[in-house]
Amino acid sequence: MASKKYTVTKLNAPIKISGIYTIHYFKYGKNFNFEPENHDFWELVFIDSGNAQILSGDNMLSLTQGQAILHRPNLTHTIYTKNNFANSAIISFDCKNKLLKNLAERVLVLTDYEKSLLNKIISEAKASYSDKLNDAHLTKMTRKKSLPFASEQIIKNNIELLLISLIRNVENKPQHNEVMNLNITSDKIVDSIREILINKLDSAEHIDLNEISFRVGFSKSYIKSQFKKKTGVSIIQYYIDMKIDKAKKLLSQQKFTISEISDMLGFGSIYYFSRQFKLQTEMSPTEYIKSIKADNIL
User: Fold this and answer.
1) φ, ψ for residue 183 (rounded to 5)?
2) At what angle do helices 220-231 and 186-202 cross, to 10 degrees?
3) Do 144 and 181 form a contact (C-beta atoms < 8 A)?
4) In degrees rounded to 5, what are phi and psi of residue 70?
5) Distance between CA 234 and CA 108 in Å, rounded?
């Protein structure tokens, strides 16, 4: 009997996790505040329950149960809670694939399948490492003397499966059909976005371009390009400018503290508020108050 000649199919694996830094599971109390940080690896933050504010570069986002964000390397970020409790799972890891950039700094809504992968990662981490997963100052995972067989491979595989699923969902997400909406002018799109931003400003909500895209009925890239074409600035910057204008009015009334105004406008921290305020006015909030008092004297 003649033997058949087989040819091996070498498997392509574009998403490869070369290592992890930390795996956390936190339960935050009300008004939890962590110092901003940045590092040269990826970090996935998932809100398991409650609500948390996320500083991601120059953006402030509000994440609720079931939502996540992926911080790219070397981006300043942190997490806050404001008058609310929250639980979060945080995984930091090394991965060189450029496709992760498509996931970075956007609000991700995890499917039940993706949540199950995340749960498996946390479960295996508890079985594999002696560290407390709620230690905010943890910088290195400590292996237990006796590890369950292939536990770290299970962690690696599940992180890779999670990222693959997230990438597929983003790539396959149906886009709004601009061709079907050609009768809607750019001015109407910009007016609709402005109205959404005004309503968000009054309720101190954080901006979410995915939500605005859905409500306006056009893809995120399209509304961003049309808005900047008409106004000269990005949607995010326009919203920040609106906040600063309102902050100046509130500071002029001298009824609220700087901290209260920062909270009222949803900045999340006085540090972020003061930085944005000075970028626009070339004065800190305190300096602005002093200038108002000087003008009143004159």
Assistant:
1) -75, -15
2) 90
3) no
4) -110, 115
5) 21
Distance CA 260, CA 145 (A): 50
Only one residue has tokens 């709620």, namely 134
User: Can you name the residues that pair with 27 across neighbouring β-strands?
Assistant: 87
- CA dist 97 and 100 (Å) reads 6
- How far is CA 290 from each of CA 173, 241, 265, 297, rounded to the nearest angstrom? 51, 21, 21, 11
How far is CA 148 from each of CA 125, 217, 277, rounded to the nearest angstrom? 10, 50, 52
By the 8 A CB rule, do 289 and 252 touch? no
**Residues contacting 168, CB < 8 A, separation 6+:** none
Task: List Cβ neighbours of 172 (8 Å cut-off, separation of 6 or more).
Answer: none
Mean pLDDT in residue range 85-90: 92
Confidence tier at 172 by pLDDT (50, 70, 90): low
Against a cut of 0.85, is the pTM above it? no
Which strand (E) or helix (H) includes residue 109? strand 108-109
Residues shown for the chain: 298
The single-letter DSSP state of residue 236 is H
CA angle 213, 219, 222 (to 5 degrees): 105
What integer pLDDT is reported at residue 175 of this predicted model? 47
pLDDT digits (tens, 9 = 90+) for 261-297: 888 888 878 888 888 888 888 888 888 888 776 544 3
Identity at 165, one-letter amino acid code: S
What's the pLDDT at 205?
67
Q: Give the per-residue pLDDT at 222.
A: 84
pLDDT at 296: 44
Count CB neighbours of 154 within 10 A: 18
Taking residues 106-111, report their average pLDDT: 87
